[in-house]
Structures are given as C-alpha cells and as structure tokens.
Amino acid sequence: MQLEELREELRSAIPTIPDFPKQGILFYDVTAVMRAPELFHHVTQALASRCSGKEIDAIVGIDARGFIFGAALAYELNKPFVPVRKPGKLPPEVERIYYVLEYGEGELEIRKDAVSPGDKVVVIDDLLATGGTAKGTVELLQRIGAEVLECCFVVELPDLKGRDQLGQVEAFSIIQYEGS
Amino acid sequence: MQLEELREELRSAIPTIPDFPKQGILFYDVTAVMRAPELFHHVTQALASRCSGKEIDAIVGIDARGFIFGAALAYELNKPFVPVRKPGKLPPEVERIYYVLEYGEGELEIRKDAVSPGDKVVVIDDLLATGGTAKGTVELLQRIGAEVLECCFVVELPDLKGRDQLGQVEAFSIIQYEGS
Predict the structure, then answer these.
(1) What is the per-residue burial (b if ≥16 Cβ within 10 Å, else e) of B91-130?
(2) Residues 6+ apart with CB under 8 A from A36
(3) Residue B65 falls in the annotated catalytic set
(4) Which residue has the higher pLDDT, B162 or B180?
(5) Which of A43, A81, A85, B61 has CA 20 to 30 A from B31's CA?
(6) A100 contacts A132 by C-beta, under 8 angstroms
(7) Closest C-alpha to B43, from B14, B17, B19, B15
(8) What are the residue ranges of helices labelled H in B17-172?
(9) Residues of B with CB under 8 A from a CB of A
(10) What predicted TM-score, i.e. pTM, was given to this entire model?
C-alpha cells in the first residue's frame, strides 16, 4: 500500500478524544489501529519498508504503546526487540534517564547489556508530540553505546516540534496532524 | 519446532535474577526471548499453533510485556489486538478492575468498546505466577461481554497455583519452572 493511501485510512480510523489525559490535550487513539488487523499490517509494513536497506541490529520499543508496534516490526524484520521501560521494571544493571515532558516528567530505563557498543538501532513509538520521551530514549541508547539510525512513529504532531528535540537523529512518521 | 525442543532453548535463554523486584522474588527475564529473533519467532509460532483451530475474535495483551508477545501473535494470526492497561492510559469509556497481587495490588482498564458482546478472545502475558493480573483481566473481559477461550503465557511458575485463579478459563504455558 502506498503511504498516501495508508494516511487516508489512518485518518479515518484514528479517533481523537478531547481533554485526555488532561484538559486541553487532544488524544489520538492509536489503539484503533491495533484493533484493525489489516491496518496494523499495513502500518507494520510501512515501518518495515522504511527500515529496508538499513543495516539494523535491533528495534527499540518505548513503554508501552511502542511495544506493540515495535514488537510486530521486530517480528516482521526478524530483528532483536529491545524494550525501553519505566523505572523498576527491568532487572539490573540498568541505565536510567530523567526527562521533562509537556505535561509532567518522566524516567526511562534500559538494560546496560541491551545492545553492544556500535549497534545500529531504530526506535519505535506510536506518537511523536513534544519529543521528550523520544529524546530521552535516544540519549539512553547513546549512553550505552548504540547508534540510533532513526526514530519512527505512527503519528506525528508537527506543530509541537518534537523532531527538533532529536538532534542529528532522523525522525519518520507515517501520518502528520497539523494544527493540533 | 516441537514444544519440548523449544522448552530446552527457553531454559538456557531465560536468565533468572534473584531478589528482583523485591527480596525473595526470583525474576525470570523474558526480555532475553525478545532479544533473540529466532526464539521470539518460535515462541510466537508456538502460541499461534495453540490458537489454531479456535475461532478467535481478538488477542488481548496485558500491560506491558504481554503487549510484546501479544502484538507479534496478533500480527501473525491477523487478528485484532486489544490492550488491557494500567489506569489512566486508555481514553474513556473504560471498565476498571482492582485486584490484589502477591506483592502489592493492581488496577487494570479496558475500553468498553474493545470487544463486542460474545466475542471470543485469547489473553496473552509473559508470565503466570500467582495469577492475580490474569484473573483481573479475565474478569474485566467478561464484564464487557467477551468470552475468554484461554490465557496463554510464555513462562509459568506452577507452584504459585496461578491457573487455579482462572476459574473455568483454560491456561496454557510454554515452559514451566517447578520449585521456584
């Protein structure tokens, strides 16, 4: 399926919920994508196409919706899947990062032995908003010696300029919602 | 791959970490399975075989490691994936359940429209210990009208009698660790 056609399908499939999780936030409910097997398949294929031709050592998924898209992608590409998790979920030794979010703050952890130094990885999450979580994940991966080739998202809210947070790391998203 | 052979591989691949997340708990680190693409593939195939011949409307994954195995399985089977989540992550309307765990307590939510009444579902999680989370998930699904065909796990600790918590619902696990 062409990206443009997939965007059309996503646009009609993903509902928006106002004032969730907080007043003034418009929530894009990507769980609708997972509930539609064909759409989930096309999204995974689009992410896989984006990865094709790259030498990738691991797919990194961000806790927790990034696990869903990341695991399907890792399965499709036959690549290792590495979870980046909220604190206290991974056994030692872990590397931890603290970061600031649009509404609140966050902490993430990764196993120190999750990648080998120099490993090339692609990061997957469902949505790129202000980019705090993605930035934290990239920094965490770089600290344990990984080279982050790209961060891939299903949905991007470009007005929030999340991709500007990622420094030299490229960002790819399937669908972009302007004016949100 | 035969189940017996897969069990052997899992036994040598899954490390155990003593006293995590609490003193006296032996942690089975299933992230090692996700990091090994062939093994992850075989585990997904074993779960898919278990589902074959069943009329299944959706695969339900439990937050958050159940998302990883559940998403790969849903992708493989071309079935809808439904996440059961910790509170505050899913937009309304949700059904919520409070339950007691071996070390602590928990709450889980599901979208009320996640399944249609009478839908047949299979629940996936990485590990069955005392069964509190699985029991909560089954009850949540039954409340919104789903019929739970089975709960499937990668690892089971049979001494903790988790499957006894599931009432009439069958439990399947790939590998069992006795005496843990």
Answers:
(1) beebbebebeeeeeeeebbbbeebbeeebebbbbbbbbbb
(2) A13, B80
(3) yes
(4) B162
(5) A43
(6) yes
(7) B14
(8) 31-34, 37-51, 65-77, 132-143
(9) 17, 20-21, 27, 29, 31, 34-38, 40-41, 44, 58, 61, 63-65, 67-72, 74-76, 78-83, 85, 88-92, 111, 114
(10) 0.97
Give the nearest chain B residue to A58 (CA atoms): B35
Question: Given this model, what pLDDT does residue A180 score?
Answer: 64
Cβ pair A121, A141 in contact under 8 A:
yes
Structure tokens that stand for A163 in this block: 């991709």
Q: How near does any CA of chain B get to the CA of A137, in Å? A: 17
Structure tokens given for B176:
């069992």
Confidence of residue A133 (pLDDT cuts 50, 70, 90): very high
User: Which tokens is A116 given?
Assistant: 């080998």
d(CA B154, CA B73): 12
What does the pLDDT read at residue B104?
A: 78
Whole-number pLDDT of residue A155 = 98
| Terminal Cα-to-Cα distance of chain B (whole angstroms) | 26
Owner of token pair 């505050």 = B88
Tokens of A128: 């790129």
B7 in catalytic set: no
Cβ pair A20:B58 closer than 8 A: no
The yes-or-no verdict on residue A101 having pLDDT over 80 is no
